[in-house]
Amino acid sequence: MSLQIRPTLLLLLGLLCQTFCQDILITEDLSKLHKEFRKLQLILESIVTDGSPLAEIIAFPATIAVNKHASLTANDLRVGASPGYNVSDTCLNHTEILIDALFRKEEWAIRIIDALGKLESDIFDGNFVWPGSYDECLNTQAVVYVDPSTKSGPSYPYRGQYCMLSIPLSNKQSATLLSSTPALSVGICLPETCNDDDAVSLVRTVLSLLPSNVTAKINPTVQCQERDREVDGRATAVIIIASIIAVIIVLGTAYDVIARLIVNFSTETKMAQFSESLPITKNTHSNGAVYENGDVNDRIHLLSKPKYSEYESVEKHTHEERHADKGIVVHILLAFSIYSNAVKILSTKQAAGSLSAVNGIRCLSMFWVILGHTYAFGFRFASNMGSFFPKMLNRFTFQAIDNATVSVDSFFLLSGLLLAFLTFRELKTAGGIKEFRWGMFYFHRFWRLTPPYMLLMMVYVPTVKYWSDGPLWPKDGFEIDYCKDSWWTNLLYINNFVNADKMCMAWSWYLANDMQFFVVSPILLIALYKSPIIGGIVSSIFLIASFITSGVIASVNNVSANIITQGGTTGFLQLYIKPYCRIGPYIVGILTGYILFKTDCNVKIGRIRNLVGWLTATGIALAVLYGLYSPNNNNSLSIGVSALYMSLARTAWGVALAWVIFACATGNGGFINTLLSWNVYVPLGRLTYCAYLTHPIVMILYYSSLRNTIVFNDLEISYLFVSHLVFAYAAAFILSLAFESPMMGLEKVLFKRDKRS
């Protein structure tokens, strides 16, 4: 393939000839053009006779133009541009300054070229992102001299502006959920006076000089980063609201701390008065001396006797006095106290009768979600996915990651179980179904989930674009049009049905499902409370309907059993996020909670039966996780078998996990119960909801701030997982202190709601 084309655009063409179309990657022309391109680099060494070799190599497109052609002007760009490709005069003039500076081999111009994305290795392994040097581009200042020969009278007309050129490599939608539609992305550095339209026009001008059969399918896009982004009205409003909340938090914390200092001083004073009022006693020491109320040790001895309860009443009375005359405003302030809320969150104490093993399962499931998302969110930022991903799929143990979606089903199971277990307790305390406060039943759930969810969305969506920068950073944020068409679906928990393809905070599909399950849960709860037979029939109807619906959808849409790696967006939108396909584990959880309530967690199981139960649960769990494995990823399951798996697998996982909770709660869990009931899981369990909300934001913040792509391997993933885990829970702690705990405190203040176990 000849590269004898118009010299006037050789500069830009030299930068783009590596990357201009999908034909480059899939035809024999790739090899030919690649060889020609490499020849140009070798010829450069024989052409250049002066200057820095490194500088000459970096600036080879301009050097070729200098040695073979007389001049390259902005007018040439105008002449070479195809009709309809308009570039502003300022952008053209400043581009001419850059070209002239390259002829003179000025350092700043060479830096501009050095900052451009260049041909990378691992192309056939999926390395389609060549970002260049973002920071070098932005830090480069153009210099224009009155007399270039003497470098006198310098002026500084513009600085470098980083833009990302993207050329789609396929017109088809992504075949999996782990990657978007492939595109070749190349970093380019232009004068800051060139806008997005100018950049696109320059690129199209270059591409128009190539053969029409090559450029016909090319539809390039360019996004230029804004150097100094002004805070818009949305972000300003968020800053004002967040500042008000921060002030309330500071006031509440200050009041709480000062009040505690005062009450501690008061308690010590009353303790001293109480000690003085103790009866005089005599104590004969070994030396025969008798002391009357004068020995501190004697008083400590007396206080350690049963009369210590009297001191406790004094301390309690002082604490009650502190809270007795507080108005509602003070109580609201105290609900925002960081000190009190942090103590509650970090406490390892549990209420009597709690299912302690649930905390361990909740935390480990959250860790599993974060591990799976470490892979999923990072795939498009990895340069070696073509070799790494197939290697992982061939690894048997990787099935625990490939099928990690069942970790979400663990949460559905836990949600249904705890709902049933606690609600049946409250129904018993209230005296029956009619006396139960069903309005508060729904309000509490909505209030428990919504404030931290919506407040996080309020802060994240309008302001995230200001949080960082980089060649891979989206200048308008990560959500489609700032969620203006979809935020209300999140508020109403219908975002998995309405505008699902534009879902705000895509991971919030889980919250929609959980709330929808909760809305219909009284049907099952009331049926079970009235009669286990009726409840069993109703639950069976729900389960069978879910099995049939899931199977039909999977069969009609030809959804593979592994919906993540082979299911595509159709499987995600039609099957994965729909409640009628995911309710199975939730129903299993409700039935398990009912059994634990009826038996009061007191069930004696023989050793043999217990062993059989554990072996069966383990076998089911392993079958769900590893049953899809096939060497070389040759999944030959028929449509019918895949549909059957999609129908039953998630509920089967719920059954296996339900046994673990049941065995641990009834004293048949052995060392598994000991591990899952570790006190460290208690505070981490309280942060699980907020960790789920924040962990994707933590990940996209890191990945999108990268200056270059990363190479995935086991060690890299391990470091990323641990880092994401720590930062996700740190962010969850902040979110809980700022939004979740205060809102729960407000509910107690406004509705005088008693603590729930």
Notes on the structure:
The structure is a single chain. The protein has 757 residues and is mostly helical. Helix content is 61%, strand content 4%. It has a four-stranded mixed beta sheet with strand order 1-3-2-4. Strands 5-6 form a two-stranded antiparallel sheet. α12 crosses α15 and α32 (688-704) packs across α33 (714-751). This is Nose resistant-to-fluoxetine protein N-terminal domain-containing protein. Residues 1-21 form the signal peptide. InterPro entries: Acyl_transf_3_dom (IPR002656), Nose-resist-to-fluoxetine_N (IPR006621), O2_lipid_transport_reg (IPR052728). Keywords: Membrane, Signal, Transmembrane, Transmembrane helix.
Total number of helical segments?
33
Going across the biggest sheet, name each strand in turn.
1-3-2-4
Mean pLDDT: 81
Count of beta strands: 6
Strand % is under 5%
